[in-house]
Design a protein that fits this description.
By secondary structure, the protein is of the alpha+beta class. It has 10 helices and 6 strands. Strand 2 and strand 3 form a beta hairpin. About 10% of the residues have low confidence.
Amino acid sequence: MSGECCSLVVLCLGAMSTLSAIAFVTIGTTTDHWTITTVNRSRVEEQREANNTGYMYFTRHRGLFRTCFPEDERPTEGSPGLFLSALEDWCYSREYHLKHLYVGELRPPRISDQANTHLQLMRITPILLFTYLFSMLLVGLLGLCGCWQQSANKLISTAAFQLLAALIGAAAMATWHAALFFEMEKVHDEGFPLSWPVWLQESTTVQTSWSYILTWIGICLTLIASLTTSAAAICLRSRTRDWEDSSMRMKLKMSRMFAQHAYFPDEVRSSSRHLRPRSHESSRDIRVGRSSPSFSSREYPTIPANFPTRLKGFQGTDDFDEQRNINSEDRMYDYRRTASHLEDSRF
C-alpha cells in the first residue's frame, strides 16, 4: 500500500510539474517582457532630442518578436513599422531578415561578422523554444500512456525525454544570453547600442523582466518533472516486483497443494472406467473391515481424503459414477480457472 501511494503521489507531482512547465514556457515565449529598457527622458530633453522619433529615445520592453512602448511617450503614430498590438501597445516587430531566408541567404548583405553572429543567435532562440514545446507535448502523450498502462519502462522513457527537453530549453536561454551580450558589447553596426551617442548609452539601463524569469521557471520545472517521473517509475517497478513475488509464492503454494495427490481431478473420471465391478461379497467385506484378496491398490486409483464417500439418493453404481464424474469436472474447472488466472496475471 505504501509503494502504491508513493508511486501515485510522485507521479501526480511529475504531471503537475510538466503541465506547469509547458504553460510557463508558452507564456514566456509569446509575451514581450524579456527585457525592460529604461531611458532617462529628462536627459533626452537636455540634449534637445525630445522631438526625435527614434525608438532608442523611449522607454520600452522587448520580447522575442516585438519591441513595445507601454507609456504615452512613444514614437509618433504612423512611423514606419509601428503597429498596435492585441494588448493595445504600440510595437515594432523585431528584424529577423526572413526575406533573405526565403531566398536561401542566411547572412544578409552589408552587415559585420559580429552582427551576423548576433542575428543567428537571435534566430536560434525561438527555434529551440518551439522545439522544446513540441517535444514536451509528445512527452506528455507518452507519459499519459505510461500512466494509463502503469508501465515503468514508458515512465522512464518519459523522464529521459523530459530531461532532453530541459536541456533544449536551457540551450535556448543560453543562445538568448549570448545574443544579448553581442548586442550590448560587440556589435558596432548602425542601430545597436554601441553606435548610440555616449550620453544616450549612459542614460539607458537594460534589465530582465518577468517573461524571462517565467521561462526559466518552466525549464526548471521540466527538470523537476523528469526527476519525479523517474522516481515514480522506480516506485512502480518496486511495487511490480513485490506483486510478482507474491504471485510466485501463490503459484508455489497452489502447486504444493495439488502435488499432495498423485492425480489431477480429471483422472478420477478416466480411471473409474477401468474399475472392475465389485461383487456383493467383496463390498460386504469392505464394509465390515475385512480385506478382499481381489482388492489391490495397483488396480484402483487412490481416493483423496475429501472425496465424497457417503452419497445419498443413488439407485446404483451408474448414479455413483455419474455424480463422481460431475464432482471431478467441477474441481477440474476450478483448478484450471485458478491456474489460468495465475498464469495470465499481469500488473
